């Protein structure tokens, strides 16, 4: 028989927002339960050097998340390795079901499910996923030592991936459909000074070309966005870095969303369109999308939940 757990606060997600919410909710004596989700630690577990976390000139992303998890547990937050597969927000207490079969009943819910990598949607991209096509340089860059690879995108994600991949690849071609990058100036400066990186402007990926036996990428076909001319570039690896989409599937038909799927919260708050449900981090933040802002919102969500529960008891 499936186990049913009751909690005052259920935190769904385990990035900076989730763990910080766990720390603050624990300090408020709310005995929160945090369910980690499909990617414990969130996006920072797939990055290497983090240079903009206050107090650490440089810290490894996975190490930072291990420390956050340990901090949440030390404060009294119960951290569960499971995935919430359904969430019923139609009535309080709220009900959630997990992949393991466990059920959770909660007086308040903090959503911190973050965001996931976007894909281009090309059939050839899908065909070679895991066989030369990746959305995570830190996960797969090691496999392309001494090889020529391409990175698709023009924002912070693409520039960071390209710079990281120069640790392994002999050449990194950055393919961008515009004539300038949208990344932070300090990152653009580093990229332009790196002799291993060659930007290719006004182009987009048309097709990933490869072999079936053994399965792997050999080339990419790129198209000039203005002339339509096709160019073939040798590449053993293709890294798609075109940003992320909010992981709002659990609540897409229950909460008010905006800006392409981000959970909408009230100004200056983490309160969503349903009382007792709060959202923090990249799930709701379509502007800043930083680890430090996610952590700050996790703090806000826990304080908002504490206030909501106190008022509900009056």
Based on CA atoms alone, the radius of gyration comes out at 21 Å
* Elements, N to C (H/E): EHEEEHEEEEEHEHEHEHEEEEEEEEEH
Number of strands: 21
Q: By CATH's scheme, which homologous superfamily of the largest domain applies?
A: FAD/NAD(P)-binding domain
Task: Report the helical percentage.
Answer: 10-25%
Overall shape: it is elongated
Count of helical stretches = 7
CATH topology of the largest domain: FAD/NAD(P)-binding domain
What's the number of domains?
2
Please summarize the sheet with the most strands. Answer: 7 strands, mixed
Low-confidence stretches: none
Sheet-strand content, in percent, reads 25-35%
What is the class of the largest domain in the CATH system?
Answer: Alpha Beta
CATH architecture call of the largest domain: 3-Layer(bba) Sandwich
Report the structural category: alpha/beta
What is the CA–CA distance across the termini? Answer: 36 Å
Q: What is the residue-mean pLDDT, rounded to a whole number?
A: 94
């Amino acid at each position: 028989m499936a186990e049913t757990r009751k909690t005052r606060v259920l935190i769904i997600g385990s990035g900076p927002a989730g763990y910080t919410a766990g720390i603050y909710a624990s300090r408020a004596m709310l005995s929160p339960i945090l369910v980690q989700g499909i990617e414990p630690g969130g996006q920072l577990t797939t990055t290497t050097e983090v240079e903009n976390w206050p107090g650490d000139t440089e810290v490894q992303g996975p190490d930072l998340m291990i420390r956050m998890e340990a901090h949440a547990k030390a404060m009294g937050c119960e951290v569960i390795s499971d995935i919430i597969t359904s969430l019923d927000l139609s009535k309080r207490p709220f009900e959630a079901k997990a992949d393991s079969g466990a059920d959770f009943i909660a007086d308040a819910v903090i959503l911190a499910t973050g965001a996931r990598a976007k894909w281009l949607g090309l059939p050839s991209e899908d065909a070679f996923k895991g066989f030369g096509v990746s959305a995570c340089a830190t996960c797969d860059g090691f496999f392309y030592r001494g090889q020529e690879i391409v990175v698709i995108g023009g924002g912070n994600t693409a520039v960071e991936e390209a710079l990281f991949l120069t640790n392994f690849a002999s050449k990194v071609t950055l393919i961008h459909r515009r004539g300038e990058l949208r990344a932070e100036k300090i990152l653009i400066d580093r990229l332009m000074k790196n002799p291993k990186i060659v930007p290719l402007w006004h182009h987009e990926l048309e097709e990933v070309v490869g072999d079936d036996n053994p399965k792997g990428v050999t080339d990419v076909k790129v198209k000039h966005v203005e002339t339509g001319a096709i160019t073939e570039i040798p590449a053993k690896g293709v890294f798609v870095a075109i940003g992320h989409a909010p992981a709002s599937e659990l609540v897409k038909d229950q909460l008010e969303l905006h800006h392409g799927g981000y959970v909408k919260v009230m100004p200056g708050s983490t309160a969503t369109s349903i009382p007792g449900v709060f959202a923090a981090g990249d799930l709701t933040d379509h502007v800043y999308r930083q680890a430090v802002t996610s952590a700050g919102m996790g703090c806000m969500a826990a304080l908002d939940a504490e206030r909501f529960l106190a008022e509900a008891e009056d």
